[in-house]
Automatic annotation (TrEMBL):
InterPro entries linked: Pantoate_hydroxy_MeTrfase, Pyrv/PenolPyrv_kinase-like_dom, Pyrv_kinase-like_dom_sf
Quaternary structure and partners: Homodecamer; pentamer of dimers.
SUPFAM superfamilies from the UniProt entry: Phosphoenolpyruvate/pyruvate domain
Name by which UniProt lists this protein: 3-methyl-2-oxobutanoate hydroxymethyltransferase
Main location: cytoplasm
List of residues binding Mg(2+): 49, 88, 120
Catalytic machinery residues: 186
Family statement: Belongs to the PanB family.
The entry's keywords: Cytoplasm, Magnesium, Metal-binding, Methyltransferase, Pantothenate biosynthesis, Transferase
Amino acid sequence: MSATAHKKAPNAEDIRARKGTEPLVSLTAYTTPMARLMDAHCDFVLVGDSVGMVLHGLTSTLGVTMDMMIMHGQAVARGLDRAMMVIDMPFASYEHDPAQAFRNAARLMSETGAGAVKLEGGVEMAETIRFLVKRGVPVMAHIGLTPQSINTLGGYKVQGRDKQADAVLADARAVAEAGAFSVVLEKVPQSLADRITSQIAIPTIGIGASAGCDGQILVVDDMLGFFTAFKPKFVKRYADLGPLAEAAIAEYAAEVRARSFPADEHVFADQTPSKGSKS
Ligand SMILES: Nc1nc(=O)c2c([nH]1)NC[C@@H]1CN(c3ccc(C(=O)N[C@@H](CCC(=O)O)C(=O)O)cc3)CN21
Ligand SMILES: CC(C)C(=O)C(=O)O
Ligand SMILES: [Mg+2]
C-alpha cells in the first residue's frame, strides 16, 4: 500500500450502482504481479476458473478445484488495493444445493478476502443466488456461454440465437430478480446483449456480447498474447507478449551456449567491493 491517500475498493453495491453510468472495466488475474498491473485501471478483477486452462494446462475448466481458486485468490488479493476482487466458484462446488454453495462461497470469501463470488447459470441457479445473497454473499451471475457446461452445450458456441434468445433473456431476468449484483453475458448475439442490458436493473458485463453492455471483461493472458492455445473471436490482442517472451528466451539460450552470458557485470569478484561500488 502506498503512503498517499488511496481510494477504497468498490463493493458489490457500488458496482450495481454503476448501471447506466460509465462502463465497468474488468480483467481476469491469477497472480500478484498481474493484479498489481491492473489495480489502478480496473473497477473489479476476476479470479477466473479460466486459470485452469490459462496457467495449469487443463483442456477445460472442469478440473479446477476449490484449493486452486483459494491459492490464486490469495495471490491476487496481495496485488489489489483499489479494485474489487470477484472470485469464480469452480465446477461442482455450488450446483448440488444452496447449502453446499454457501459453504464453498463462504470459504472462498473468508480465505481470500474476495468481495463477491461468481457462479454460472440462470433460471436453474436463481434459488441458490437468492440463498447466498440473503446470507451476506454478493453474487455475480454468468449466463450465455457457460464454460463449465461445455459437455452439455457441445462446444464453445454462441448462445441465444433465434429461438434460444428468450431462454437467455429469462436467465438474465431470473438472476437479477434473485439478487445478483451484476451478470456476465458470454458469447451472445449483440442485439440480445443490448436487449438484456436495457431490460434488467443490474449491470451486464460483456465478453463476446456488445459494446452496449454496462461493462466488459477479458482473460488477461488472451489480451496480452500470452495465451495462444486458441483465440476466441471476441478476444482483441492489445499486445503480443508471447512471441516477445519467446524471443528473449531464445536469445538467452543462444548466449548461454556461446558462453557470452553471464558477462562481467553479472559475476562477482574475489574481493569485497570498496565503498561506493555497486556490485
Ligand atoms: N484463455 C481463455 N480465454 C477465455 O475466454 C476462456 C478460457 N480461457 N477458459 C474458460 C473459458 C472458455 N472460454 C471460451 C473458449 C473458447 C471459445 C471460442 O469461441 N472458441 C472458438 C469457437 C469454438 C466453437 O465454435 O465451438 C473460437 O474460434 O472462437 C469461447 C470461450 C471462455 N473462457
Ligand atoms: C471469462 C470470465 C468471465 C471467466 O469466467 C473466467 O475467466 O473464468
Ligand atoms: Mg469462469
